Amino acid sequence: MDLPAPHKRKRSASPPPPPASRSTAPIDLSLLEALEKSQQNAIETLDLKTLKKLALSFERRLNANTAARLKYPDNPDKFADSELELHDELQKLKILAGAPELYPDLVSLGTVNSITGLLNHDNTDIAIDAVTLLQDLTDADVVEDNDESAQVLVDALIENNAVELLVQNLARLNDSDPDESAAIYNTLSTIENLIEVKPSVSELVCEKTKLLKWLQARIKIREFDSNKQYASEILAILLQNSVANQKRFGQMNGVDTLLQAVAMYKSKDPKMGDEEEMVENFFDSLCCLLMPLENKERFVKAEGVELMIIIMNQKKFCYGSAIRALDFAMTNYPPACERFIDVMGLKTAFPAFMGKIPVSKKNKKRRYKEELEERLVSLIASLFGGILRGSRRERLLSKFVENEYEKIDRLMELYMRYSDRVKAETEQINQLELEDLEIDEEEKYNRKLDSGLYTLQLIAVILGHLWTSEHSGMRARIELLLKQQKLSRKDVKDILQEYHDNIGDLDGPEEKERAQSKISRFISALS
């Protein structure tokens, strides 16, 4: 099963409010004039000569501050001026974000090492300046057209322990202070930027720092704010493509943490768009976390199945997300399927399968309804794959008999819709080939998957389960509906055969053989 893409925070999402002034003293116009003059002086041609000039000036101020602190460690008045000068130099360096092609030179001069070291500065304000500078230098909009230069910068930051220092600095920042709250946001933004440039940072930061622990503590706070939202997004990014991170967070009781986070919204809706994004990020993280088998087990033990069913029954904002989480939990994990049936999950899921989805602003979108349909088809296919015999199997099969086989009618309605889509895509591919455009077999198959082939295959698998139950009434209904559409069992077999031939070995050769054997039995039974 493909991982969900994290619900990315929009780049335009608002950071915390601008830091409040630390002083209420009247504005000194001479200071404003001096600031304006310094900014004018900073506007120079950005070339290597300018870079060297900026770097040298910065290093001098840094050395002066270090010397003053060593000489007068217990007398802040003696090094306060050097700290203000260092602050000014860090502000000047921000201009380098306008010339990312100079980043390799910035690295070779050793300036990156010095900037990184300031993350550990005794004065939190200086550390905050360093964070803000790094955030500017690594911003996605700045580095997007300068991949090589960005790689050089990020490699140097990693080599100089920037990742570790960024996370260590987080521990001393307090959300109640506006400046420090903004610095928390900028720290998370910098970490995201580093991952964008070098995806391996995702595992590195979890292996070498306590970022996961910090994020976990952050999302446990009940009150909503922009930093909690951003923490939820970073967690989703870290878990998205890393089995190591998924397992690590699972061992940290991460499944229970996320269940508690989403439980707050079981009977209420988020109040605003940003809060909605945060809740979506919680569910994205939960779905990623449910990939390793041991986390599925933790989910069942923590009564995650029951919570998702409660959320569905409440018919609030999280309705569709709960279906998605159940789909991930039940895929290739029979104990979750058994629990689902034992706690009356069928009574909740099948009305949704029949199209009775609660109305909200979210599900007015056609694609949202289609995604729920696809998730429910996958969930039902997982139930059939996980419950092979006994009373639970009988309860599942009986759902397709009740109310004059209405579930089979619905299944065939979906079969025709997705079949038509796949046929349309196939015809388009054939037309492109007639126009001498080369499309290899893998691309053809992937395009068909994108058009709905996978859902069509799962519908065919469910039909295979129904057919092999040898229930005469269900078989007669399937035959009748196929005939009405001028189709036959051979059409279902063809879909199953294509599915059989394309089953991968991601879960190992034994699992591939087992899956292919099951599909082969359906094909044989439909002959």
Automatic annotation (TrEMBL):
Ranges where the Beta-catenin-like protein 1 N-terminal domain occurs: 24-131
One Gene Ontology CC term in the entry: spliceosomal complex
InterPro entries: ARM-like, ARM-type_fold, CTNNBL1, CTNNBL1_N
Residue ranges, annotated region (Disordered): 1-25
Keyword Flavoprotein attached: no
Annotated compartments: Nucleus
Major subcellular location class: nucleus
Pfam families in alphabetical order: CTNNBL
Keywords from the named record: Coiled coil, Nucleus, Phosphoprotein, Repeat
Residue ranges, compositional bias (Basic residues): 1-12
PANTHER family per the UniProt record, alphabetical: BETA-CATENIN-LIKE PROTEIN 1 (PTHR14978:SF0), BETA-CATENIN-LIKE PROTEIN 1 NUCLEAR ASSOCIATED PROTEIN (PTHR14978)
Protein name as catalogued: Beta-catenin-like protein 1 N-terminal domain-containing protein
